[in-house]
Design goal:
The complex is a heterodimer. By secondary structure, chain A is of the alpha+beta class. In chain A, about 55% of the residues lie in helices and about 15% in strands. The radius of gyration of chain A is 17 Å and the shape is elongated. Classes of the chains: A alpha+beta, B alpha+beta.
């Protein structure tokens, strides 16, 4: 657990959007998908997952419908909407820019200043 | 995205039970899957269940967070507040009825009476474009050492004003008499001798039947009259063929040319008729011992031209009347221009006194209702100290408790507001029927600013009192 990273504020939404952009998923599936992609480096606090899902659906970025899960149970599946795809692109670009800037700053050596 | 939010919110509100059961199913499904996942990792079933629950957190808390995400919390709380307020008002029925009655009498009667006083004494007796209406009072003396008297105007002065004043449009003149109509020598009927623009100054453009007076009637040989709707209905049985018929006024024949609907210029409840002012001699009116230019018999009103003030009009009319003075050696005249309200009439100190008395009493009534409501709410707040303590101990926030109390007060206020609205609407008409025999042609509609001011002040006092005494201990 100690090598897992704490989630930065505001990144959960981006992670969820990314996870459902790869295909429709139910809530628990989203959790697993994020852990899997991050190779268990990230763990999402389950308590914040569903409020975030409801918020994203409320914004119109994801849409839900009931379907059947892998073990034949009724489950609510989330998929990305067109608006959600745009939002994901926008947020990804913002994230990359931010990462670049941060890396630049953290790399700065005394002679460059 | 705003559309999406609205759609989502509407769906959540209108298909609430479906949304709730879906949410419940979704969270339980999540727990089950999590448990299944953990079991594979080899923990004991009880430990697994416990761990899964701990990780997701309490389901009810989760649901509440999801509801917040959908923007439902705020409305849920208002609905709960309202439901609770209804229940607690119902529980304290005597007190609630008491508060509502006090408010109803306090607000309803105060603003009703004030509306009446306002309409009768504080504003111009017209309904259209009240700001441009002015009333003109003549002052004159024949003895320069003594103060001038307020008195009616001469026809010459009126014509000088009408033809020359540039700050005024349509200066109108009238004289009021009571005459015998249709040879009825027992009762008199109001006869108004007016200028042709009298109707338009008081906002009437069209007759109900026939026509109103026009300039041609003032030089014509046939004497004509316009009847008020009341007179036409009561004395002529709403005769549809009245136009063109001759009637007897002071035993002279006059031709009816029109019937006027109710309008702001009416002065009698039981009906009246309007004649061109040139009919004085024909109808045997006026005094005959003064030379024609010195008979003072006309009352004057007018409408301001755009861009001119009452002060402008007064300055101009004083100049005109001083020119008129040159035709009458020894005469010294002036004018006063008012907004047409009773209270601004010159030398009308009695009205000022009466109005201040009435308004004083109203303020007293208002204060008493204020005190009454405040005391009632205070006593209730005291009795509920313990309830508040329990609520706080159960985890209600201070702001939540205040909201609950304010909702209760507002609900009470709504009921009282509707009740007093009814009174406000009816008191002026009832008063007008009681107090004076003169008709009120102009509107007695409530003054909404006054109504909301009265309502607001009483409520504010009530709410503040209720809150101040509910000492909600700091958690």
């Amino acid at each position: 657990v100690s090598k897992q990273l704490d989630l930065l504020q505001g990144t959960l939404d981006l992670l969820i959007l990314k996870a459902v952009s790869l295909g429709p998923l139910h809530g628990y599936g989203i959790l697993l998908r994020i852990q899997q992609i991050s190779r268990d480096q990230l763990e999402i606090l389950q308590g914040s997952l569903y409020p975030a899902l409801y918020r994203l659906e409320h914004q119109g970025w994801i849409r839900s419908e009931w379907g059947e899960s892998e073990n034949k149970r009724r489950a609510k599946y989330y998929r990305l909407t067109a608006g959600g795809r745009r939002q994901l692109e926008e947020e990804t670009e913002k994230w990359n820019r931010m990462a670049e800037v941060m890396t630049g700053i953290l790399r700065a050596a005394p002679e460059e200043v | 995205m705003r559309v999406a939010r609205l759609r989502s919110w509407l769906r959540a509100v209108f298909r609430r039970s479906r949304m709730e059961s879906d949410m419940d199913a979704e969270l339980r499904m999540h727990l089950d899957q999590h448990v299944a996942g953990l079991v594979e990792s080899g923990l004991s079933p009880e430990a697994v269940r416990r761990k899964a629950r701990l990780e997701l957190g309490d389901i009810e808390v989760q649901k509440d967070k999801c509801r917040t995400s959908l923007g439902l919390r705020f409305w849920d709380e208002i609905r709960d507040d309202l439901r609770f307020a209804l229940r607690s008002l119902n529980k304290q029925r005597v007190l609630s009825v008491n508060v509502v009655l006090t408010l109803m009498l306090g607000i309803g009667i105060s603003s009703g009476v004030f509306t009446y006083v306002d309409a009768m004494a504080l504003r111009a007796p017209v309904d259209n474009d009240r700001k441009s209406y002015v009333q003109i009072f003549s002052l004159f003396t024949m003895d320069a050492t003594r103060p001038m008297n307020v008195i009616s105007a001469t026809l010459e002065d009126y014509l000088a004003f009408r033809d020359n004043a540039r700050s005024l449009r349509s200066v109108t003149a009238w004289a009021r008499y009571d005459l015998n109509f249709e040879s009825d020598h027992l009762n008199t009927t109001r006869a108004m001798l007016v200028s042709d623009n009298f109707f338009s100054v008081y906002g009437l453009q069209k007759a109900k039947l026939g026509r109103l007076l026009h300039l041609g009637d003032y030089a014509a040989l046939t004497p004509v009259a316009v009847l008020s709707e009341n007179l036409w209905r009561d004395r002529f049985e709403s005769d549809p063929l009245i136009i063109g018929k001759t009637i007897h006024v002071s035993d002279r024949l006059v031709t009816v040319v029109g019937v006027a609907p109710r309008f702001a210029g009416e002065t009698s409840k039981v009906g009246e008729a309007w004649f061109p002012y040139t009919l004085t001699t024909y109808l045997g009116l006026g005094e005959h011992w003064n030379p024609p230019g010195e008979v003072r018999w006309l009352e004057l009103a007018a409408r301001l031209n755009p861009g001119f003030s009452r002060a402008d009009a007064a300055t101009e009319l004083r100049l005109l009347v001083s020119q008129q003075d040159k035709l009458h050696p020894g005469r010294k005249s002036s004018v006063i221009v008012t907004d047409g309200s009773l209270i601004h009439e010159p030398n009308n100190t009695r009205i000022v006194l009466v109005v201040s008395l009435i308004v004083g009493v109203l303020i007293l009534v208002l204060l008493i209702s204020c005190a009454n409501v405040t005391t009632l709410l205070l006593s209730r707040a005291d009795a509920r100290q313990q309830e508040m303590g329990v609520r706080l101990a159960l985890g209600a926030s201070r702001i939540r408790i205040i909201r609950m109390l304010v909702t209760e007060a507002l609900l009470l206020a709504c009921v009282a507001g509707i009740a007093s609205l009814y009174l406000t609407y009816h008191v002026p008409t009832i008063l007008s029927r009681w107090i004076s025999s003169a008709t009120v042609g102009f509107s007695l509609d409530p003054d909404w600013r006054v109504f909301s001011y009265f309502t607001g002040s009483i409520l504010l006092a009530g709410i503040l009192a209720g809150l101040a005494r509910t000492q909600i201990p700091k958690s």
